[in-house]
Amino acid sequence: MKVLLVASECTPVVKVGGLGDVVGSLPKALKKLGLDVRVVIPGYKDILYTGGGGASCKEYAIHYGGEAQKIILHQTTLSDTDIPLYFIENEKYISSGGVYMSPSAFASSKDEIERFAFFSKAVVELFVSREDVFFPDLIHCNDWHTGIIPQLIKAEARYIELKRPAAVFTVHNLANQGISSVDVLFRLDGEELFKSPLIKWDAADDNLDFIMQGILASDVVNTVSPSYAEEIKTAEFGEGLQEAIKAKSARVFGVLNGIDGALFNPQKDSYLKVNFSLESLEEVLKGKSANKKLLRKELNLQEKDAPLLGLVSRLTKQKGIDLFINSVDELLGMGFQVVVLGVGDKTLEDMLLSKMNELEFSGDCAGIIKFDEGVARRIYASSDMFAVPSRFEPCGLTQMIAMRYGAVPIVRGVGGLKDTVMDGITGFVFSGFNQSEFLGAVKRAKRVYESADLWGKVVSNCVNADFSWDKSAREYVLLYAKALKFSS
Ligand code: GLC
């Protein structure tokens, strides 16, 4: 089966969030199952100028905004594999500005939408309307950035009377929808697109929702965990699209993300000063304790007999960062040391900074406002517990990484957090989004922590939990088979 994955990020070339990790890892697992899988992402300026653009480049012209536009297709391979990775370069729409135009990454401004509309058109013209580059059986789109592609595939197929590729659409985060003015349709492919009843219906209120188009026009939809697939059918998590999703519910599935076991491996992780094996509990605990000592030095925390609670996250409302910061005093009062690492919304960064200033001399609390993979890995390796108090969470990767590094997760029981953490067995789960329930779970964790035997069992369960991509990749293959059936 020939599959083209299309997305806005792909680790390690471009990563802003978990989406990049998924797009960088899933193809490797699919390849092992025998699929001819390839990936295409935008050729952002940063990639092109750091040599990531790869060896081979070819020029093409595509139609956008009523005229021919030059694009350059770069081809390289996904790191440590022979999986082809393409970048599409275009000076005007794609390759000026950063990876995402807004620093918060998730605002879909007019320019951002135009960029991804253009990128989507280029993908379809290269990989659907011609057969000399790569003609996939199936195009796997991810999030709003690629949401218009299933509609474009159908429009294109009508022109060229080719059997069209099937379309799978994965929702990583329904909160970011890419809401555009309708005029983008004319630049994309006016006439043909307007023949679609779904477009007509969506455009009736004078705007177009890219993620909704992706959901409604693709052959099969999935979210990144089974629980989130159910949650988005409700008003609480559906972001206004719950009725549309319910209407399509027979084709909406949930496939849990995995993590890359080769990348997240405490035994080989070059970011750690002390590596440790996961073979025995004793080695895990010894390794963690050595790392904790060093991290305390690195972050100016005092050396003492206290549990360390870590949090590594984008600092956004989704992640419940406000709830966590508001709980820091109580956490210190309970005898914890606390470490937070991340960047994101300015208001949350400021809130964290002001809390840190207040506690500057406590020696028990550190807040680092940057994206630093090395510090992140050392936090996973050193923390006894790891907090993920999200308002909603499509899957969440940090709780799985934490488990692999022997840090016991304390999570809110929503979406993928609920599907990956078993209360009292591989972590501690709370349900209501409020401080008292969060602190209640922390207290339960601390009580278990105080009994070496019980704690040892929980840590062992965590490091032995299997979150490999192999299982998820097999589920994707089944999903792809469904999509092929529905599209023919
Ligand atoms: C988004 C979601 C997160 C998920 C990731 C990868 O960032 O918020 O829950 O793990 O995508 O699918």
Automatic annotation (TrEMBL):
Look up the coiled coil feature and give its residue ranges.
none
- Gene3D superfamilies for this protein: Glycogen Phosphorylase B
- For whether the record's keyword set contains Protein biosynthesis, the answer is no
Q: Which residues bind ADP-alpha-D-glucose?
A: K15
Using the record's annotation, list all stretches that form the Starch synthase catalytic domain. 2-246
- EC numbers listed for it are 2.4.1.21
Q: What CDD domains does the record tag this protein with? A: GT5_Glycogen_synthase_DULL1-like (cd03791)
Q: Which GO terms describe its biological process?
A: glycogen biosynthetic process
For the keyword Nuclease, the answer is: no
Which stretch is the leader sequence? none
The pathway this protein participates in, as annotated, is:
Glycan biosynthesis; glycogen biosynthesis
Q: Which Pfam families match?
A: Glyco_transf_5, Glycos_transf_1
Known role: Synthesizes alpha-1,4-glucan chains using ADP-glucose.
Output this protein's name.
Glycogen synthase
